[in-house]
Specification:
- Two copies of one chain form a homodimer.
- With about 140 residues, the first copy, chain A, is α+β, with helices and mostly antiparallel strands.
- The first copy, chain A, is built from three helices and eight strands, in the order αββαββββββα.
- In chain A, β7 and β8 form a beta hairpin.
- The longest helix of chain A has 10 residues, at about 45-50.
- The termini of chain A are far apart.
- The interface between A and B is large, with 43 and 43 residues.
C-alpha cells in the first residue's frame, strides 16, 4: 500500500480498542526489519494514518494526536498496516526518516539485558537538541 | 543472552508497568526479523522468562501466567530482551518453534490493508486442531 486509502469498514469492525480507546502499534522499518518503537493509536489516528500515508499516533502523555515527526522532522511513511489475529494490536511497516527515538537513536529499543546487566546497545545518531531545538 | 539470568535490579527499577501491572512485549524472530506477535507480561513473567530462557507471558483473558507453547509445543526461546526508551515496552528477540499464532500461522499479523481492503496475507502452516488437540 503506497497510495492513501480510506479505512476499509471491516478494519474498524474488527479492531479492539482498550478502555481508553487505544490500540498498541509496533513500527517496523519495512526493508531492514528493525523494530523501531511501540506507540498507541486511537481510531482517529488509524484513520488519519491510512488517509495520509504518514503515521499518526495518539500521545497518552499529551492526550492528543501525535503526528510522528511533526516537530522533529523524523516522519514515518506508512508502507503497510497489519492487524493481528485478535484485532488488538497493529504492526506498521514504515519507512522511517532519520531516527525513531526521541533520544536520537534509530530504535527506541536500545537497551538489552546482556550477561545479567541492562546495557545500552546503540548510541545516538543525532543530537536530540538538533531534533527538537536547542535546550 | 543465551544463558538463563537473574533479572538485573536496574531492569525492574526502570520498567513502567501499567495500572494492571502489565507491559506490552513484542516478539520478533531473531534471525529473520519477522514480528511474530504482541502480548503482555507482568513482573513475574519477565523474571521467569529471564530465569528460564523460555518466554512466559501473562494472559489477560485467563488472568494467569502463559508459558508460550505449554499446550501447543510452539515455544519461544529467548535470545535477548530489550527495553525501550521510556521503559514501557519490551522487545523479545526469540527463536520460535513452529508457529506463533493460535490460528496456525507463523505470525499473528497475517492481515493487511491492501488496496483499501483488509486481506489475509498468510495462510496457516499448521492445522490449529493439531496444535491444541482435535476439536
Amino acid at each position: 500500500m503506497s497510495q492513501p486509502v480510506t479505512p476499509p469498514p471491516e478494519l474498524f469492525a474488527g479492531l479492539r480498542f482498550d478502555a481508553e480507546g487505544l490500540i498498541p502499534a509496533v513500527a517496523q522499518q519495512h526493508d531492514t526489519g528493525e523494530v523501531l518503537m511501540l506507540a498507541w493509536m486511537n481510531r482517529e489516528a488509524v484513520a488519519e494514518t491510512l488517509a495520509t500515508g504518514r503515521v499518526c499516533y495518539f500521545s497518552r502523555s499529551r492526550g492528543a494526536l501525535w503526528r510522528k515527526g511533526e516537530t522533529s522532522g523524523q516522519v514515518q511513511r506508512l508502507i503497510e498496516l497489519r492487524v493481528d489475529c485478535d484485532g488488538d494490536a497493529l504492526l506498521l511497516l514504515v519507512d522511517q526518516t532519520g531516527v525513531a527515538c526521541h533520544t536520537g537513536r534509530r530504535s527506541c529499543f536500545f537497551r538489552a539485558v546482556r550477561e545479567g546487566e541492562l546495557v545500552e546497545i546503540a548510541a545516538p545518531l543525532v543530537d536530540p537538541a538538533a531534533l527538537y531545538g536547542s535546550g
